[in-house]
Amino acid sequence: MESYRKAAIIVGVLFIIATVAPIISGVFLGPLSDISGGIVIYPILKKHNEALALGYVGARIAEGLLFIVNLITILTLLILSQEFVKAGAPDVSYYQILGTLLLAAGDWAYLLGFGLAFTISALILNYVLYQSKLVPRWLSVWGFIGAVLIFVYYLLQPFSINLVEILFFPIAIQEMVFAVWLIVKGFDTSKIDS
Which of 15, 163, 167, 193 could be 149's S-S partner, Cβ–Cβ 3.0 to 4.6 Å? Predict the structure, then answer.
């Protein structure tokens, strides 16, 4: 039972780090926390649905890797702009095409990483939590709704339909409440062993 309590605290702390790190510029901490949180919670979710637990970890890994690809494209764009300045009066169209391609690649990596991989992981996690009753069902329903709102937001992005960022708040707040819940109360251990 004590190991489940420790796992709950670790998952809670990692959820907080994954949410807060990008805000305070810990760009590599976010993906690392995403992957770590998935790995720590895997044994608990596995007891209730092994396939979905594996899908959850896979989606968290994909999210982290796509986020890193997004960062690499942004850093590459910075290098490209420095090379443009060094070149003096180069063929501008060459640099514009490369810059446009890098921006598009970064946008797609972000869209697939956060819009798809994160959404899938949040849907899986909250579905398993709802089915297993490891946390109160209202908390997992809240997370499920938040994930659907994020998916709708990102689904409309390629069509230049911009919704207000308020659609991010339900899942962001739910993840913080979920993290605090795990730190303070932990998982319902009677449901883990059942």
Answer: 167
Q: Which of the 8 DSSP states describes residue 116?
A: I
* Residue 95 burial (10 A CB sphere; 0-12, 13-18, 19+): middle
Q: Please give the Cα distance from 86 to 64 (Å, whole number).
A: 33
Give 162's DSSP letter.
Answer: P
Structure tokens at 92: 């501008």
Q: For residue 118, what are the contacts with CB-CB under 8 A and spacing of at least 6?
A: 34, 59, 63, 150
Q: pLDDT digits over 111-140, tens only? A: 888 889 999 999 999 999 999 999 999 999
Residue 26 DSSP code:
-
The pLDDT assigned to 7 comes to: 84
d(C-alpha 2, C-alpha 164), whole Å: 43
**How many angstroms separate the CA atoms of 147 and 142, rounded?**
9
Element (H, E) at 154: helix 137-156
Judge if pTM exceeds 0.90. no
Handedness of CA 79, 85, 90, 95 (dihedral sign): positive
Tokens found for residue 169: 């708040």
Count of all residues that appear for the chain in the document:
194
The C-alpha torsion from 36 through 41 and 42 to 47, rounded to 10°, is: 170
